[in-house]
Write a structure and sequence with these properties.
The complex is a heterodimer of chains A (257) and B (250).
Chain A: H1 2-27, H2 42-69, H3 73-87, E1 92-94, E2 99-101, H4 106-113, H5 115-133, H6 141-165, H7 170-197, H8 203-213, H9 215-239, H10 241-246, H11 252-256
Antiparallel strand pairs in A: 1-2
Helix pairs in contact in A: 2-5, 2-6, 3-5, 4-5, 4-6, 4-7, 5-6, 6-7, 7-8, 7-9
Chain B: H1 13-16, H2 19-35, H3 40-55, H4 60-84, E1 89-95, E2 98-103, H5 104-130, H6 133-142, H7 147-176, H8 183-214, H9 231-249
Antiparallel strand pairs in B: 1-2
Helix pairs in contact in B: 2-5, 2-9, 3-5, 4-5, 6-7, 7-8
Classes of the chains: A mainly alpha (257), B mainly alpha (250).
């Protein structure tokens, strides 16, 4: 009976893998690092919502404060959320993984609008993606906000500020901010995934396995995110340096030079 | 972007149902799926969701597109759980000198997670396919989700199509001028694309605000007015949740 059970399980698995591969290879466009709907059990999903909540609240508070001064700030945040959404929908081929993937854009929004507003932008982009693209999920939104919004935005913002403080070139600072924002997101997602699906297994070995499994996609993707962030900062510097001053990315005297 | 449009079929009863009823029902079933310890309930929800999508006449391509990423995640989880989790050996084979062992308990755990993913995804897919975005936002606002969050979501949704079109024009122009033929050039082109979209976002936000202020914008956007709940819809929703609850407890 056990042999029969094992045999049918193997056949079932084979069928599932083949069917899944066929569907995925036929229609797949983007495999990013959002945690899929339903992957986290209720307790873990709830915990990540609790972790994300103060950051979202801080973002809302800052939004309220800034939009009271400048009426165009709320539309600007909405439009930046649209940009982040679109960037994370642009399929970029990743030859090493044989698939397509895409950057997050939160490093970029973190630099431009600050990390707390960037968390809010990530939350909006994640909500729309979860509802209409099954990219991420409603139940995993808390975890995705923590990895993409909080870790991505803060890693990008702090890296950029630290490198600029050390007088590092604008494009290199932008590149490093994008790169580290992406990799911080990816490492946090791996930790969230490992803690959510580990069951009775040990956390650390599973975390490393997940981290290694996504290296072929996420390593080049980090470079792409870095190049994108650097390109954005440099383009703004060349075309509209006044915006960088207005958003407090650069000081007025840096533009004069 | 066609994934957003045309999928709302007004003739279907789910599309006509109050968004608040659909959101509350979906969230309650989602909680049941996430908290269930077995396979049956999430699988039942998944099959029910598929049935509703079929009844709503969702095109196959759009349907597969919606489920492609969850299926990819499911396959990764199954492989991880089968080979790296569990103790009971199901099968083993030698591969380049390494003995690969598949575990039956790991596989069962993987299947349990896979069913949970597919069940949860199908609930949100039904909600997304049957409800326009502005109705979902009005429903969330009624559920006391902060107004600012709802407003910037509405702004974002409104401008996704516009910016996406602009982005595709730039992307195609770059591609036609061999902007993505080499890795370095491709990275530069993508950076310019992101920068151009950001510039457009700044310019559009300014122009939009000017236009909105001229029309009386004072910092808050109007949302859909909620109609009173219909007894039939609420009763049906309670019945569905009760039936799901009974299945969940078994």
């Amino acid at each position: 009976m056990k042999v029969l059970h094992s045999k049918s399980a193997v056949q079932g698995l084979y069928l599932l893998v083949v069917t899944t591969s066929c569907i995925v290879l036929t229609v797949c466009e983007a495999h990013a690092m959002h945690i899929s709907e339903g992957i986290l059990p209720l307790n873990w999903a709830a915990l990540w919502f609790v972790v994300a909540a103060p950051f979202v609240a801080a973002g809302l508070q800052r939004l309220k404060k800034l939009s009271a001064i400048d009426l165009s700030f709320k539309p600007l945040v909405g439009l930046m959320a649209a940009v982040v959404f679109i960037i994370s929908c642009m399929p970029i081929p990743v030859p090493s993984a044989g698939t397509c993937s895409h950057p997050c854009g939160t490093g970029m929004s973190g630099i431009l609008l600050g990390p707390t507003i960037s968390v809010l932008i990530a939350a909006v982009a994640l909500l729309i993606q979860a509802l209409f693209l099954a990219h991420g999920g409603l139940s995993t939104m808390g975890a995705d906000i923590v990895s993409m919004g909080v870790m991505g935005s803060f890693a990008g913002y702090l890296t950029f500020k630290a490198l600029r403080f050390m007088k590092v070139n604008l494009s290199i600072a932008g590149f490093m901010a994008g790169l580290l924002a992406d990799w911080a997101t990816y490492i946090t997602t791996s930790a969230e995934l490992a803690s959510g699906i580990r069951g009775d297994s040990a956390f650390v070995p599973l975390f490393w396995k997940i981290l290694i499994a996504f290296i072929p996609t996420q390593l080049p993707l980090g470079i792409l995110e870095g190049a994108m962030t650097a390109g954005m900062v440099v383009l703004l510097y060349k075309k509209r340096p006044d915006l960088l001053v207005k958003m407090r990315v650069l000081k007025p005297e840096e533009i004069a030079i | 972007m066609e994934i957003f449009t045309e999928q709302i079929r007004k003739e279907h009863f789910l599309s006509r149902t109050d968004a608040r009823v659909k959101i509350i029902s979906s969230l309650m079933i989602l909680v049941m799926v996430l908290s269930y310890r077995g396979i049956f309930f999430p699988f039942f929800v998944f099959v029910s969701g598929m049935g509703l999508c079929y009844k709503m006449k969702i095109p196959l391509k759009r349907f597969l597109l919606r489920f492609s990423e969850p299926l990819f995640i499911v396959s990764v989880v199954l492989i991880l759980k089968l080979f790296f989790s569990g103790k009971e050996t199901l099968f083993s084979f030698a591969w380049f000198g390494i003995t690969v062992i598949g575990h039956s308990d790991g596989l069962m755990e993987g299947i349990r997670i896979a069913c949970r993913i597919m069940g949860a995804v199908s609930i949100v897919a039904v909600l997304g396919f049957s409800t326009p975005f502005n109705e979902i936002m009005a429903g969330l606002s009624w559920m006391r989700v902060p107004r600012s969050f709802v407003e910037i979501s509405m702004f974002a949704y409104r401008y996704i199509f516009l910016l996406f079109e602009d982005g595709m024009v730039i992307y195609n122009a770059q591609k036609n001028r061999l902007g993505y033929t080499k890795i370095r050039r491709g990275l530069n082109s993508f950076g310019v694309l992101a920068g151009s979209l950001t510039l457009k976002a700044f310019d559009n936000s300014h122009n939009t605000t000017v236009a909105m202020v001229q029309r009386g914008y004072d910092g808050t956007m109007p949302l859909l007015k909620q109609k009173p709940f219909r007894l039939a819809e609420v009763s049906l929703s309670v019945l569905v949740i009760a039936v799901m609850g009974i299945i969940w407890t078994r």
